[in-house]
């Protein structure tokens, strides 16, 4: 039995470090937003949250509430991830002197 391994493509380029870091941070915040959306909307119904005297017409749909909530949690997670990465990078550069 022979095992054939694929050879790496010599023309394939690796992502620059900055692009790879951004992709990792966005992916981690995406997964955090998925979990936060599941837990939040397991407790709260988007229609009841939008039940106001005069909610906007576009917010009267349950799926729109889920979507807005997901993107809100994704934004919060991405902001936290990027601030954490910035603080770790600042400390690694030696700028943490008081």
TrEMBL record:
Q: What is this protein called?
A: Uncharacterized protein
Query: Which species is listed as the source?
Result: Povalibacter uvarum
Which domain of life, per UniProt? Bacteria
Q: Which PROSITE patterns match?
A: PROKAR_LIPOPROTEIN
Q: Which residue ranges run through the membrane?
A: 21-44, 64-88
Asked if the keyword Transmembrane helix belongs to this entry, the reply reads: yes
Q: Which UniProt keywords apply?
A: Membrane, Transmembrane, Transmembrane helix
């Amino acid at each position: 039995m022979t095992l054939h391994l694929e050879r790496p493509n010599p023309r394939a380029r690796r992502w620059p470090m900055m692009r790879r870091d951004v992709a990792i941070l966005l992916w981690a915040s995406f997964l955090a937003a998925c979990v936060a959306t599941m837990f939040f909307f397991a407790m709260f119904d988007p229609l009841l949250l939008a039940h106001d005297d005069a909610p906007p017409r576009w917010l009267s749909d349950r799926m729109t509430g889920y979507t807005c909530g997901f993107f809100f949690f994704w934004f919060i997670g991405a902001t936290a991830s990027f601030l954490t990465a910035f603080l770790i990078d600042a400390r690694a550069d030696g700028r943490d002197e008081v």
